[in-house]
C-alpha cells in the first residue's frame, strides 16, 4: 500500500497512470487440504519465484495474504500492453509445479484496475482490482478481467447470494423435487432423480446452474451433497413403509464433491446411518470427474460400485464424447445430453 500511495503522490496532476493487478490462485485450498500446508507454502514460493523471473524489473510483486498476490505495474504502458503482459504471466502459471515429487497444475484469476481511471486512492484501487479478480473467478477462473464500475454491483449480488445460501443451508431452506424416470420396457420399475431446489427470500427460485458452482467455490458442496443423499435415503424408506414399493433414486454428485477428501467415507456413513440398501441408489456424475486424475476417479467409482451403488454418466456428449473412452469407465447407465 505504501508503494501505491507513493506512486499516487508522484503522479498527481500529471497525465501518467499505473495499474494494479490482483492475483488469486484458483482452488488453492485443495492443495492445502490434500497435500498439507507445507506443500501450500512451497507452492506459493514457487509461484512467486516464477512470476518475478518473468516480470519487468520496474514492476513490483507483493503478497497480500493467503493465496493472494498483487503486481504494481509502474510503467507507462497501454491497456493492451498491460493485458498482454498479464496474459503471459497467466500462461506461465499453467505450467506444472513439482511438489513432493508430484506434478501440480495451478491456475489463477487476475483482476486489473487502473489509476486514476478506476480509483483515486490506494484503498479504492485495491478494492477495484479485487472486484475485477472476483469477476474473473465468476467467469470460470483462470482468466483476466479489467475493472468496470458495474462489476461492483455484480460482486455485491454474488456475495449477498453466497451469504443467503449459507443461511439457507443452516436453516434447512433447501428442498428436493423428485423427477420420475420411466422404463418403457418395464413400467413396474419405479425410479426418480433427486433435484435440489432453493427458494431464496426476495429472489425466488434460484437456478442450480447458479448456486451449485457457488456452493463448490465456497466449500459447501460436500455438506449439500450429503444432505440431498440423506433426503433421498429417507424418501426410499418412506415409500417402502407407506406403499410397500422399492424405488430407486438417482442423486447428482459433482466433480468437486467427489474429489473432496473424505467423500467416500461421508456418503457411505449417510447410507449406513439411514439403513438404505445401496442398490436402491444411483450416483449421477459427469465427464468432468475424470479430468485431472482419471485413475483416482475410477478407483472411487469402483469402490462405490462394490458398495452397491449404481453409477450413471450424465450429459454425455458435452465432454470427451468418445465411445472408445467410455469402455474404460465402470458405469452402469449412460445419459446422452439433449443438445
TrEMBL record:
Gene3D superfamilies, per the entry: 3.30.70.270, EAL domain
Domain EAL positions: 158-339
InterPro entries with a match to the protein in the record: Biofilm_reg_signaling (IPR052155), EAL_dom (IPR001633), EAL_sf (IPR035919), GGDEF_dom (IPR000160), Nucleotide_cyclase (IPR029787), Rev_trsase/Diguanyl_cyclase (IPR043128)
Domain GGDEF: 16-149
PANTHER family per the UniProt record, alphabetical: BIOFILM ARCHITECTURE MAINTENANCE PROTEIN MBAA, DIGUANYLATE CYCLASE DGCP
Name used for this protein in its record: Diguanylate cyclase
Amino acid at each position: 500500500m505504501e508503494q501505491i500511495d507513493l506512486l499516487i503522490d508522484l503522479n498527481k496532476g500529471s497525465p501518467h497512470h499505473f495499474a494494479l493487478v490482483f492475483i488469486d490462485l484458483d482452488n488453492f485450498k485443495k492443495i492445502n487440504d490434500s497435500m498439507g500446508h507445507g506443500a501450500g507454502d512451497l507452492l506459493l514460493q514457487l509461484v512467486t519465484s516464477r512470476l518475478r523471473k518473468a516480470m519487468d524489473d520496474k514492476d513490483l510483486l507483493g503478497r497480500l495474504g493467503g493465496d493472494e498476490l498483487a503486481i504494481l505495474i509502474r510503467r507507462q504502458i497501454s491497456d493492451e500492453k498491460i493485458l498482454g503482459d498479464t496474459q503471459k504471466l497467466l500462461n506461465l502459471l499453467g505450467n506444472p509445479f513439482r511438489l513432493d515429487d508430484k506434478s501440480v497444475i495451478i491456475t489463477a484469476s487476475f483482476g486489473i484496475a487502473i489509476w486514476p481511471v478506476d480509483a483515486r486512492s490506494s484503498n479504492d484501487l485495491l478494492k477495484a482490482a479485487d472486484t475485477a479478480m472476483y469477476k474473473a473467478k465468476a467467469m470460470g477462473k483462470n482468466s483476466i478481467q479489467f475493472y468496470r464500475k458495474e462489476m461492483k454491483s455484480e460482486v455485491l449480488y454474488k456475495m449477498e447470494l453466497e451469504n443467503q445460501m449459507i443461511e439457507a443451508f443452516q436453516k434447512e431452506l433447501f428442498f428436493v423435487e423428485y423427477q420420475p424416470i420411466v422404463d418403457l420396457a418395464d413400467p413396474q420399475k419405479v425410479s426418480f432423480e433427486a433435484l435440489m431446489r432453493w427458494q431464496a427470500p426476495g429472489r425466488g427460485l434460484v437456478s442450480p446452474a447458479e448456486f451449485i458452482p457457488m456452493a463448490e467455490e465456497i466449500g459447501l458442496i460436500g455438506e449439500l451433497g450429503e444432505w440431498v443423499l440423506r433426503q433421498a435415503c429417507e424418501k426410499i424408506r418412506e415409500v417402502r413403509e407407506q406403499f410397500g414399493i422399492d424405488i430407486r433414486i438417482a442423486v447428482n454428485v459433482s466433480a468437486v464433491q467427489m474429489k473432496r477428501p473424505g467423500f467416500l467415507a461421508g456418503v457411505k456413513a449417510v447410507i449406513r446411518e439411514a439403513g438404505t440398501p445401496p442398490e436402491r441408489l444411483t450416483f449421477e456424475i459427469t465427464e468432468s470427474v475424470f479430468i485431472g486424475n482419471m485413475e483416482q476417479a475410477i478407483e472411487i467409482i469402483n469402490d462405490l460400485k462394490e458398495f452397491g451403488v449404481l453409477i450413471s454418466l450424465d450429459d454425455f456428449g458435452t465432454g470427451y464424447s468418445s465411445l472408445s473412452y467410455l469402455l474404460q469407465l465402470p458405469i452402469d447407465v449412460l445419459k446422452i445430453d439433449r443438445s
